[in-house]
Specification:
By secondary structure, this protein is α+β, with helices and mostly antiparallel strands. The chain is built from one helix and four strands, in the order E-E-E-E-H.
């Protein structure tokens, strides 16, 4: 006999920072352990993964650099 699966709770996210210099970027915390750095793709109206980190400071710096357009 199968048991009914337990409902999955949504993963909580929170933004650390959003930059809007040349390219909109953001760093956000996923599930309390992983920072995702994302850039906004206006043509498709979506946020696109660029980088990830376990450290907030690293994610912040990565988002800042992506926003100003440095390689």
């Amino acid at each position: 006999m199968r048991t009914k699966p337990k409902p999955v709770e949504p993963v909580k996210t929170s933004d650390l920072v959003m930059f809007n210099f040349r390219h909109p970027t953001r760093a956000r915390l996923i599930g309390g352990a992983l920072w995702l750095v994302e850039a906004y793709d206006a043509a498709n109206d979506v946020w696109v993964w660029q980088n990830e980190s376990t450290e907030a400071d690293d994610a912040l710096e990565s988002a800042r650099i992506l926003s100003i357009g440095k390689p």
